[in-house]
Amino acid sequence: MGKYQAYPEFKESEVEWLGEIPPHWFVLGLGKAVEFMNNGSSATQVEESEDTVRVTRIETISEGVINLEKTGHVNSRDISERFRLKMGDIQFSNINSLSMVGNCALYSGNELLYAGMNLLHMRPNINWVNSKYMLYQFKTKGFRNSVEANAKPAINQASIPTGTLKLFKFLCPPINEQQQIANFLDHETAKIDTLIEKQQQLIKLLKEKRQAVISHAVTKGLNPNAPMRDSGVEWLGEVPAHWVVRRLKHAANIQSGIPKGKDLTGKIAISVPMLRVANVQDGFLNLEDIHQIEIEPDQLERYSLQYGDVLMNEGGDNDKLGRGAVWKEEISPCIHQNHVFAIRPVSIEPQWLDVLTRASYAKFYFFSVAKQSTNLASISSSNIKETPLLIPSGEERKKIMDYVQRKIEVFDKLESKCVAQVMLLRERRTALISAAVTGKIDVRSWIAPEGAKTDKEVAA
């Protein structure tokens, strides 16, 4: 914040997380700064038709704005006009998972929209509060800490009572200064968001390039002059003439995992670690959260993982289908659930099988034979067994794997730098918002660059 000017004087706010504030600012209870209209309509949601109107839902709130593509619909006769949103109203999630309680969005459009369930409907006092400024204050770390400290936990969710929210402290500069702060933050955070978007696009391009490099190496080899032949697989095309094409079932065995929920009442049982779909990522394992499961002792050997097993997800979301990594006995003993296959190579290296199943051609095969449903897909062990494998000689496999590993390391380093840059930009964005809305920097003399739109101009 060094490049921004500070206020010439300060006074104590008498609010611990706020510290000192400019002398002409004052602190309000949130109950005086906004009118709490209601908790949103509980009308039953239905399919969209000529007789329906839009209502907000928890998923409608996205990055501080109302996402109209994720609204629900209710019959217009079933909802009162008192739930209708006006420009400047704020939707606040007061019942949600703990990390999402306090998520909020500003309604700034002219579309007909009503407040829905599990979202508080707030209407800022226009004489005291600029809605956009309030939204920015809701994004500060201090406000977030207050939410988490006061949210009441429940099964799989948390809630914060309206009465408690009304007592939260709201820092209130003069209304014209709030407008100036909102305009300043709109401009500055937009620049940061643009940089974040560019980094995220670069990460996406790096992932695509990495996938292309892997796929080309394991399907075409490293010698561009090698004689080629038809692979016999329509969607795979030509492969080096001296390579063998073999079904996975002839190069590996598949071990299915243990189903959950077996009744062990009255039986001897032991508790062992169990890998789930969430633990098996694309090319690596996430072992931060390993669940335990009760099993009968004689099941341990049947479902135990062995060093070199290639783990593969049965399905789930489309991005999880066929996703896998090599097991290196990070935990011993350890078993796997029935939605994770353990593929045990017998004539090729686990690393070669792993890199083949991560290639585009294998992913295409998995999707082509998977059982599809809405945003979900699953693949059977019998279909996995039919996966075509490309097998060069052992020496050539080693050269290709070494090459792929070097390339992956380069891409991983570049991607890590991009991820770190995104984190730094987000931290800067949060710090800038906090500094502006808590009076740590003075932006009263800030002038919008030529061509930049102010908050009032956008609202108009």
What can you tell me about this protein's structure?
Among the domains are: 147 residues, Adenine-n6-DNA-methyltransferase TaqI, Chain A, domain 2, CATH 3.90.220; 170 residues, DNA methylase specificity domains (Adenine-n6-DNA-methyltransferase TaqI, Chain A, domain 2, Alpha-Beta Complex). It is 33% helix and 23% strand. It contains eleven helices and 30 strands. Helix 5 runs antiparallel to helix 10. It is elongated, with a radius of gyration of 28 Å. The two termini are 31 Å apart.
Short description:
The chain has 460 residues and is α+β, with helices and mostly antiparallel strands. It contains 11 helices and 30 strands. The strands form 11 sheets. It has a 4-stranded antiparallel sheet. Strands 20-27-23-25 form a 4-stranded antiparallel sheet, with helices on one face.
Q: Give helix % range.
A: 25-40%
Beta percentage is: 15-25%
Mean pLDDT: 90
Shape: elongated
What would CATH call the architecture of the domain at 222-391? Alpha-Beta Complex
The first-level CATH class name of the domain at 222-391: Alpha Beta
N→C terminal distance: 31 Å
- Describe the sheet with the most strands: 4 strands, antiparallel
List the helices and strands and how they pair.
Layout: E1 11-12, E2 20-21, E3 26-29, H1 30-33, E4 34-38, E5 52-55, E6 61-62, E7 65-66, E8 72-75, E9 90-93, E10 95-96, E11 104-106, E12 113-114, E13 119-124, H2 131-138, H3 141-150, E14 152-154, E15 157-159, H4 162-166, E16 169-172, H5 175-220, E17 228-230, E18 238-240, E19 244-247, E20 252-255, E21 270-275, E22 291-295, H6 299-303, E23 310-313, E24 315-317, E25 324-326, E26 335-336, E27 340-345, H7 350-357, H8 360-369, E28 371-373, E29 376-378, H9 381-385, E30 388-391, H10 394-437, H11 455-459
Parallel strand pairs: 5-12, 21-26
Antiparallel strand pairs: 1-2, 3-16, 4-13, 5-8, 6-7, 9-11, 9-13, 10-15, 14-15, 17-18, 19-30, 20-27, 21-22, 23-25, 23-27, 24-29, 28-29
